[in-house]
Amino acid sequence: MRVAIIGAGHVGSTAAYALMLRALFREIVLIDANDTLASAEAADLSDATALAHPTSIWAGTYEDAASAYIALITAGTPTHGSETRISVAARSALIVARCVNNLMSSGFAGIVVVAANPVDLMTSVVLRQSGLPPSRVIGTGTLLDTSRLQQMLASALHVAPSAIGALVVGEHGDSEVIAFSSLRIGGLTVAEFASPLEEPDQLRLAKSLREAAYQIIQGKGYTSFGIATSVVRICEAIVRDERSVLPVSSLLSGQFGIQDICLSLPCILGREGRIRVLQPDLAELEMTELRASAAVLQGALAALPWPLISPAAMPASSPT
Ligand code: NAD
Question: For labeling, which of 71, 210, 233, 311 is most exposed (least CB within 10 Å)?
Answer without folding.
Answer: 311
